[in-house]
């Protein structure tokens, strides 16, 4: 047999979108919907030391007014996010930020999730080589209900540097969700919350704004684990999987893997910060690689009441590091310290 | 306590069958039936970058006329195959080939799969030390329906080299399934196929015979992953698990792991080649080891219409390599190039 | 932004209980109940070469009188055990032993498991620095039925060495469960047992007391696998996850991972020792690390009839080693040989 001749046929693979391919108001329906089951839930618990009782036990979830234990909120985020990668960040130079993220409905086993993004901002860089794209992404279930909604902006390369710069549109994004913007899942009632089964006695009123919590434990990360996780979310970014992709032969770990690891570690001290309902901001301060030992600490940034029975909201900074005792976030020049991997600002719900 | 004395009792473990243990017409019902669930489906997506929408979303599968999303066809193959290992290939010197493989019914969560093989060919090698065994293996579900049917032949050692050579029987195996032999799953209807959700716009009519597709992406393989996958299929071949088994201390990766990885990578360019219905031939050209970065390319070998609404069949060569840009299959002497791991010839179903 | 100031607020994380924190009769309800699904079952089969048919096939389980295939008995054990770690063994110096372990009810997909322990013994060490704590742990399902019950004792550090020594109470623990203490699952009937589907022809009457079985196969262990497994059981002991925790930079593998690996390997020779119903004793003789190749051998210690149709009980010693041919258990001085990782004494049920 001869080596096949590579025919000149219209190329079937896609190189992804470049900066000039986006326009304000453009809606991109992302591919590959995903039905989740107990399998995704078990894998989430196998990949992260996740112990929040509401996500571990159907019985506990029912005692809190939910029909069953939902898929972890971050797993829902990863699924929604993963679908956007081929359309939004395949040619991204940098993932610049998140804002206005809201979890609107829990995801349950049997639900089918898809994602859709709208371009809400464009700003070409002065070098003419790249630009910033802002998208509002929605995750939807099989009934068309929005389960998650967030804004993300990325720096994307231009392919054709002669393409004209679009009109600059930079969306006004509040740095923090106000408490009235948070959506408490229908039926949630924490008045009969079982603090023994949840693992810690601390309730909403026990936390003070400004308080910091060292989550103590560390987890050393392996290549197989982050790839298994990232594939599970059908995130296709090459840099996570292909050791030949970078000059140093290292695989960059998906930032969401660090988020989930840090959040799971935060159980130790925040066992009752059960449901994530808001993502205010997030920065992947430094890259994470296999062999890093992840640690986490949190800072209470704000607190608010909600109208749901027994349910308080707590705003937390979650910091992941790859060194013990690394409690300093930034240097005097405002840059993140080298051991900081993640700086995440989110709202969670707790029993009052 | 003293060290236990090893009694002389009939040995309970089995050394597996040798060439002289097979006879034409012999039927071997393989052990350990397996019930699959959402767990196997989630693990398949965690181990491979599998994104074909029909296998990811129950809603998408229903829009194609199926009751729900089936287990990936290759997962079904691995489960059926895995059961045959203790009876067919424990003393195999080489896995020589596959032919006439047909997927006859999708496997769904809740199904219980078992395997049965019939010996259909025997040919002792001229050296008298080994021989080739041909088996036709069937995978069956809990209703006794055949879900998969394929022929495989392996070279197996003789244990007793004095055992007489059996009469030589070599089955006539057509190198390719004809389109009329392919079974389209009952109810499959791709007339309302959603090309946005599936991830690519290319339909059956967009592919040309002779066309080749470089699937672009690469995945570097880890020991933990291939062992997790191979165990999931209850494949017990020592060489995949025991680093002390080979002189070089390396674990040989199950060929099926390479098949699934390459097929999943082929999404990029063949996102709409949804269902695998025929396996014409397959060769594991070179061994694969942990650390290899798998890439894949495909060649369109043939096309055919089917009687099902909107459903076309496409015959594809799927080649996996462990090097970038390795598009040459064989050397001038007809041998596979050293970077070729897999050469698979299969039929898939696509929207017309 | 400035580095956060770590406020002086009551510490939210817990350092775990110390020896002086336990008292006789104290009942500890452990946190984080867990609902299991097909996901946990699939992962168990992916992590261990588990092939016992009763745990693999719903159809096979039904043919044995059970409603469906249960979660592996050792997975049930790991889930129950994992919950006790934060309360019992976070400050443990050594896991000293198990006794009187009984599986009382199978765990099925959909069940929610929690754990509760009662302190039944205390004995301060003569050095005044530590003591031995004996607990009886029960695993319960969502109906409050006990699914598993066992005694474990650990050596725990004192935090306050001035705390007075408690009155010494050492429970009387029979070294072996008597056959009448074993609980056969309701409905179990092995009179129509299918020895072809189970994988081996050997029935209860084929095994002789004193007989030993080399299970032949080996599995080389990876970091990712034991961490995935240990996290799945929500076991939080740092030493399994944090490579910076020990001076040698190695992660100690959870002893239960070795138990499950050895038990799965014992399929080869004990395929019909289906259900584990009693744990008489267990010692983790030497630590296990990534890269070890686990092998196993068994010794038949006893046999007994049961009142259930076709069901016999067999008492087995299961030994895991990290070397081939390591069939000697202890040295002349009574110490375990360096290659012995596990010495487990259990009762299983077999077809008669």
Descriptive notes:
The structure is a homotrimer of 352-residue chains. Chain A has two domains: 15-36 and 71-173, Hotdog Thioesterase (Thiol Ester Dehydrase, Chain A, Roll), CATH 3.10.129.10; 176-352, Thiol Ester Dehydrase, Chain A (Roll). Chain A has helices at 38-47, 58-63, 73-89, 195-198, 223-232, 255-265, 267-270, and strands at 27-29, 34-35, 92-103, 112-124, 130-140, 146-157, 212-214, 219-220, 275-284, 293-305, 311-321, 340-351. In chain A, 18% of the residues lie in helices and 30% in strands. Chains in contact: A-B, A-C, B-C. Chains A, B, C: InterPro entries: HotDog_dom_sf (IPR029069), MC_hydratase (IPR048274), MCH/BMMD (IPR052342), Thiol_ester_hydratase_Rv0216 (IPR016790).
SSE layout:
The structure is a homotrimer of 352-residue chains.
Chain A lengths: L26 E3 L4 E2 L2 H10 L10 H6 L9 H17 L2 E12 L8 E13 L5 E11 L5 E12 L37 H4 L13 E3 L4 E2 L2 H10 L22 H11 L1 H4 L4 E10 L8 E13 L5 E11 L18 E12 L1
Antiparallel strand pairs in A: 1-4, 2-4, 3-6, 3-9, 4-5, 5-6, 7-10, 8-10, 9-12, 10-11, 11-12
Helix pairs in contact in A: 1-5
Looking at the overall shape, the CATH architecture of the largest domain in chain A is: Roll
Q: Give the total of beta strands of chain A.
A: 12
Number of helices of chain A: 7
Taking pLDDT < 50 over at least 5 consecutive residues as the criterion, the unreliable ranges of chain A are none
Write down the domain tally of chain A: 2
**Topology as H/E string of chain A?**
EEHHHEEEEHEEHHHEEEE
How does the helix and strand content of chain A classify structurally?
alpha+beta
Question: What is the beta-strand fraction of chain A?
Answer: 25-35%
Looking at CATH, the homologous superfamily of the largest domain in chain A is Hotdog Thioesterase
Distance between the termini of chain A: 73 Å
Considering residues with a beta carbon less than 8 A from a beta carbon on another chain, report the largest interface and each chain's count: A-B, 49 and 60 residues
Assembly status: homotrimer
Average pLDDT confidence of chain A is 95
Organism (chains A, B, C): Seohaeicola saemankumensis
Protein name (chains A, B, C): MaoC family dehydratase
InterPro entries (chains A, B, C): HotDog_dom_sf, MC_hydratase, MCH/BMMD, Thiol_ester_hydratase_Rv0216
């Amino acid at each position: 047999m001869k080596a096949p001749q590579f025919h000149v046929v219209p190329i079937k693979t896609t190189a992804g979108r470049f900066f000039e391919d986006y326009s304000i108001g453009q809606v991109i329906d992302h591919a590959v919907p995903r039905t989740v089951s107990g399998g995704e839930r078990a894998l989430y618990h196998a990949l992260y030391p996740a112990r929040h009782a509401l996500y571990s036990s159907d019985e506990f979830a029912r005692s809190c007014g939910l029909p069953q234990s939902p898929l972890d909120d971050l797993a829902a985020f990863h699924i929604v996010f993963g679908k956007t990668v081929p359309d939004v960040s395949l040619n991204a130079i940098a993932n610049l930020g998140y804002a206005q993220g809201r979890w609107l409905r829990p995801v349950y086993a049997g639900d089918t999730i898809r994602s859709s993004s709208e371009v809400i901002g464009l700003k070409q860089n002065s070098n003419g080589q790249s630009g910033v794209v802002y998208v509002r992404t929605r995750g939807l279930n099989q009934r068309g209900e929005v389960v998650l909604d967030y804004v993300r902006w990325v720096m994307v390369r231009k392919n054709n540097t002669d393409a004209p710069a679009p009109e600059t549109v930079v969306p006004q994004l509040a740095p923090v969700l106000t408490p009235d913007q948070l959506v408490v899942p229908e039926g949630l009632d924490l008045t009969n919350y079982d603090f023994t089964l949840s693992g810690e006695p601390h309730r909403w009123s026990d936390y003070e704004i400004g308080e910091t919590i060292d989550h103590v434990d560390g987890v050393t990360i392996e290549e197989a684990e982050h790839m298994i996780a990232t594939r599970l979310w059908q995130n296709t970014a090459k840099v996570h999987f292909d050791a030949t992709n970078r000059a140093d032969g290292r695989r960059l770990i998906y930032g969401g893997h660090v988020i989930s690891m840090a959040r799971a570690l935060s159980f130790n001290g925040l066992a009752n910060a059960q449901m994530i309902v808001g993502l205010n901001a997030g920065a992947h301060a430094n890259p994470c690689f296999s062999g890093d030992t992840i640690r986490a600490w949190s800072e209470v940034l704000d607190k608010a009441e909600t109208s749901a029975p027994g349910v308080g909201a707590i705003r937390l900074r979650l910091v992941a590091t790859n060194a013990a005792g690394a409690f300093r976030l930034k240097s005097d020049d405002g840059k993140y310290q080298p051991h900081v991997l993640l700086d995440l600002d989110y709202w969670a719900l707790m029993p009052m």
